[in-house]
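Table S7 (text form). Paired inputs.
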Amino acid sequence: MERIAIYPGSFDPVTNGHVDLAHRGLKLFDRIIVAILHNPKKKYLFTVEERLKMLEESMGTHGIEFDIFDGLLVDYVQKRGACAILRGMRALSDFEYEFQMALMNRKLNREIETVFLMTGMRWIFTSSSIIKEAAQFGGDISDMVPAVVYDRIRAKFGY
């Protein structure tokens, strides 16, 4: 039976840490579905379609798929036939939120496991929010995001 994990997130924008985590997840699962949560109430730098395209161009490899979902994550996981949710943790500050989410997901569906991978040391300080803020003020983020993402961020901020 194929082992499928869902790697959910906003991916606004996709970072090298996201790419690293998805590829490392392939060592544990047969297939990873990188799924963008569509939340129309949140304000994003990139549209969901732009984020999907950047994910495909940044991570496209055998064993990784891309999708968009809304609603409860556990419902989406079950619909896709996955057995696990893949999440990354950068630091202790991520733990409390991720732990709460994992417990809630477990309460909603006991058949779905949450698997945490520590972010690679090279990417431990990066987050989409910090990258967007640095880029907004002209900071050099070229080594924190895939080249295609860097080009699109520069275009968004006009430099």
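Next pair, protein 2 of 2.
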Amino acid sequence: MKTHDAIILMGPSGCGKSTIGNALTECTAWPFFEGDNFHPAANIMKMAAGIALEDTDRIVWIDALIAAMDSNSAPRIIVACSALTPYVQQRLSNESNRAVHFVLLQLTHEELKARLATRRGHFMASSLLDSQLATLTQPEHAIAAKANQPVADIVADILAALGE
């Protein structure tokens, strides 16, 4: 039985994973892991060039992320990770020593496109949005959070759904 939890904030680029992860950490003091920090340089170069990742590209990234998640002793952690594909979702759920709870941050295509248009300093090419949305598979028991609300409301919704 897995006694520690990982809250995986998932969704396409621009949905607010990092913003919500930082806000949840401020509220709860649960450690926050930014999944982008675990990508190898080759993945970052590919995405910056507008080339979508395949699951084979994600192997090293997920290995590193799972190792970091499992090396932390906190009872509950927060992870920002796109987790778009069943491959990534299953690896996180099955290979981590933590019970994984997915939270899908939902925005419309238009809302995501608008956010990406004003975003600066991130390696992800905004041209990948359509491929990310086409790849996105919502896990069966994911918590769905409307990400077009104020951050405090999104955090409150997530905490309520988690029973906090």
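The chain has seven helices and five strands.
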